[in-house]
Amino acid sequence: xxxxxxxxxxxxxxxxxxxxxxxxxxxxxxxxxxxxxxxxxxxxxxxxxxxxxxxxxxxxxxxxx
Length: 65
Description:
Elements: E1 3-9, E2 12-17, H1 23-32, H2 48-64
Antiparallel strand pairs: 1-2
């Protein structure tokens, strides 16, 4: 799956997927990698702030091009 962003903090990874990608496809790929140990997997919805930044950022990019 296409990953937009990753962050690592206190033994926890947060992975932001591209639109159209599913958490299930990411989990399937991670499980197949024997070098990765998964202790917990959860899905977090984007915050209102994340959505606002995405929309405003897309609008500004279109205006500049």
